[in-house]
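Re: the 279-residue chain
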Amino acid sequence: MSSQRLIKLPRVLLKLHGADTNVFLQGLITNDVTKLQSQNGLAAFLLNTKGRIVEDVLLWRRGTDDVFLECSKRNQDVLVKEIVKYRLRKRVEISETSDQVFFEQNPSDKHEHRDPRFAGFGARIFGNPPSSEISENREAYENLRRSTGIAEGADELADLLPFQANGDLLNMVSLDKGCYIGQELTARTAHTGVIRRRILPFECEGQVKIGADILDEKKNKVGKVISSDTTRCLGILQLSSFKSSKLTADEVSLTAKQPEWMPDKILANNKTRTSLTDS
């Protein structure tokens, strides 16, 4: 009896091929594509011209010169449309692969495709493995993701700023690469702005609706739920409310948690600045 170690994800894998692929991506996403010369995976955002998130992506090397781009299946068409819009005359071909995307929670230390956002968040497997190894229990992945504090997909991330989505803490934003779409606001926020809200995980005492307002003990709106199950949820929260004595959403009690990957100073200095560029 084989263990079902792989969880099938609602993600797709696109292949970018052509002489201008790396240059094109370098001017398009928030992270430094040249890092793929020394590592197999890279996490990033695609932004609009206002510096707001269109989609989160994972880029992968798989033993060829091609770059494989993983994104949410639900927002695939929107993402491809954005990519094509900026391609112009660059020599880049985009195609969808037949490979499915799977999550492995406990990969070996030498696994080639460990999650580039947070090393403790498993790895990806691509292809069409034996059915005996596949679990359809996607909710197990979603629960783990909520517990870890990692948001995914346009449903959770669209229109947020990269730092509100913790892009600076999850290795998704380079602050010293060249220009890219939405770079001006991102750079200004990193060096001179105040980041007052971030996505955080919460323990909840019941199911809450996605989009529900998060209220503090004075019934002030301090955040919004973006993903939820019966025990865990993700929400964007005003950091000054992290230690509020009472947080609720849909009259369900919430407890904000500090993710393992979030430095203490992000929550300690929330009334001034909370960027990694702070000393």
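DSSP finds six helices and 15 strands in the chain.
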